[in-house]
Structure prediction request, 626 residues.
Amino acid sequence: MLDGRAAVRRRINARLWLSGGWLALLAIVALLAPWLAPKDPLAQDLFAARLPPFWMAGAEPGFWLGTDSLGRDVLSRIMHGARIALAVALVAGIATCLIGSALGLVAGFMRGWADRIISRLVDIWMAFPPVLFAILLIAVLGTGLHSIIIAIVVIDWTRFCRVVRAEALNQSAMDYVASAKVAGRTRLSIMVREILPNVLPTIVALVTLEMGIAVIVEAILSFVNLSISTDAPTWGGMIAEGRISIHQAWWVLVFPLVTLFLTVLSFSQFGEGLKDHFDPVLR
Amino acid sequence: MLSGSLSVLLLRIVLGRLATMAITLFGVAVIVFVVIRVVPGNPVAMMLPPGATEADIARLNALYGLDKSIPEQFVIWLGGVVQGDFGTSISTRQPVLDLVLGRLPATLELSIFALVLAVIIGGVMALTGTRFRGTRTEGAVDVANGVGLSVPDFLWGLVFILLFGVLWPIFHISGRISPALDLPFVTQFYVFESIVRLRFDLWWDLLTHMFMPALALAIPLAAIISQLLKQSLKETMHLDYVVLARTKGYGENRVIVGEALRNAVLPTLTLIGVQFTFLIGGTVIIERLFSYEGLGNMAIDAVINRDLPLIQGIVIVFALIFTVVNLIVDMLYAVLNPRLRHA
Prediction:
């Protein structure tokens, strides 16, 4: 039994290290992009359009991963794109978490009319196709980083709300909550001091998942050309461009796609790893 | 086939659901209606030529009822919807209902094909993982589930475009059907109609167009099905009746498929219902990615063109589909769950 747990723990640790490593690397690149990027991500050079990556015939030195149809350096654009992706992930992920968890906690612990209103809102939200909702909101709010973040929060708070509400309901039925009530503690104090710490591991795992989702939503919005500006170096925008010139210059699609794939996978694996890490049975 | 008590139960589920469905749909309608009317920029002014006068704009505004207050517009719109009139699209000047009904079959066929793929892939993976539990094969199934769950349909779509559209071009990567083909169809349910008309050449062409978008939609759901079904199967394997089947000398395959599967499938079925609505929501971007002429693709165009009546109509139809799917799942659950059936 003990050996089995050790093996599971090793696997969890490997997962945490691999996904965490990629995310840390990405964070460093994002922070230092202006210094690390070999070229200006916006600089166009029609004489250097659609240059292949460095190992292929016809590559030019300095353009490691090739250039797009306007002659912009793919590597530099991916590096600068990481800034936008991670900014959206962090801010939208945390804001979504705070709002959704607070509502879920109130609904699950307070019950009554608060729960009824919040749960009804969640039902209504679940009846919206999320991507369409996001595009609609961007059309209303206008493009830009703020709009993307607001749109993600408005759409995805229900994810936290549903999970935290269910957890809070479970916890509220436990003896320690009953004894806290007997001890005469206020409801707010029980909610924040007793229930919240027990729900926290779930929230932490969910927040990293949400960050991965935020990165995807940003990519989808820039894919349909509704993200920041058409010129800004976003992964989704690069992918949209690459989708068009896929038969002439596959590298414009492949490199941002691989980056996005690894990033989304890492966020979710990191979240899963954290959840298992906090799991009292495995600890 | 249905016993009396079961039909009463189903009726009670439908009636109970209808009230919440109505509230949900009303809420969706209000939100969409208000949200899209806050959009800066007059949608009508965009469709007139640059030389249009103020009077022209005002006349068109009046034509689409956009000169009235938002609550007034909502009441007028709701009155129309109740009679089956969803208004007129601003960008195409056709009735919204016709446009939506023209595209809905394409989206439904894609979603159902994706669901079938997800059930097949997920089911096979769960059964394989259970049959070879404790081996490397089970480990491989677990890893595949993990990756399938982590990566959303949009990314799978891009990966497939790259792999099977470009590197090894065996499938079509855009459209619903090859434009050169002569279409005899009278309905929009192309796949269904091609089978009825025994036109298997068209049927094959449709399938090769649908396969990649459907697979992209199917993978996350397949991973969820595989994970949950495998877990339920493993729990069922320890139950007395399964152990009994084994002591009777049944082979492992027969024990899993013939005995354990029947009881393990119920929780998965409920989950498929909820997840199927997520899959349908995913068609919006997947249709865009594969230039598939469905409802979702039309929705994105409608937003870009600020076609308010069309956006409203599409969102309401999606919300209606979601709530109906949930209703069907509730009813299926009642039919299949022995505890509820004999209650």
The first helix of chain B runs from residue 4 to 37.
